[in-house]
Amino acid sequence: MAAGVLCATATIAADAPTKPGSVFKDCPTCPELVVIPPGSFTQGRDGNDVMEPVRYEGPPHKVTIKYSFAVGKTEVTTGQFKEFVDATGYVANDVCNIWDGKRAEKTPNTGWRNPGYGRPPADNEPGACLSWDDAAAYIKWLSKKTGQTYRLLTESEWEHVARAGSGSTSLYTWGDKPDDACKTANVADLASKDLKPPFTPRPFPPANCNDGYPFIAPAGALKPNAFGVYDMIGSVWEWVQDCYVMPYPANTPTDGSAYLGPDGCDRRVSKGGSWGSTIDRQIPTFRGRDPVTLTSQVFGFRIARDLK
Hints:
Blueprint lengths: L10 E2 L10 E3 L7 E4 L2 E5 L17 E5 L3 E4 L5 H11 L6 E5 L4 E5 L23 H15 L3 E3 L2 H9 L73 E7 L24 E4 L16 E3 L8 E2 L2 E4 L2
Parallel strand pairs: 1-2, 10-13
Antiparallel strand pairs: 2-3, 3-6, 4-5, 6-14, 7-8, 9-14, 10-11, 11-12
């Protein structure tokens, strides 16, 4: 894959394109999608200097994805989730975990319409306070609306997209220096000095860079990766399909498919960190582990779509 960013103008797809980097959508208000090529990479890592062995991210294993698929150019936005709610009457949780200056607390009268920003969320911002169950409901509706097969990314697909086919084993998607985050990732950084009530800086050192956004950034506001995909790191945590098991079990799929376990899931994997997470969570191998009902002001989701 070339180092340059693949980008194109979105088209309404009668038949989805298959050329890597092609951008399309299935209806005028549907999320834009980017075609992702096949590829091989090493998933997971042995080192976790911060939380080993509590959050071991290995063992590393080679994954080969032999198929193309499409992925949301950005995370699903508030406006896109609102269209789903307006069309179906879906009722999401109105109690979300909101940072209160010391910890994240379940806060009544919050949710995706009020994710604790001190103002209504903008339609072009990533949807937040959305659970795995909310993501599943949205995906079921979008699949029915378009006649296409939408789903969440698998954990392997997510890491493949985050690495953008580089083959790199660097600690972060942008290299090994945490302070190089801000060109491509909306993370907790020096912009936090501009936070005003009800926000307070998080109790950990920020990345030594400034992305220009004290908290959530509009979807796609920063630079895309080499696949033409935005905000894989930072912004909001992204739910994926897989059940969480640590360490990766011996029968972990190596073909890009999801690990769903013999008895279902008590927790699902979440990836990518957020605007309010420590920089060690922004490592692409880091694995969140959360119940499907969790709602947090730093959790949203990204969609994937099968290509015929």
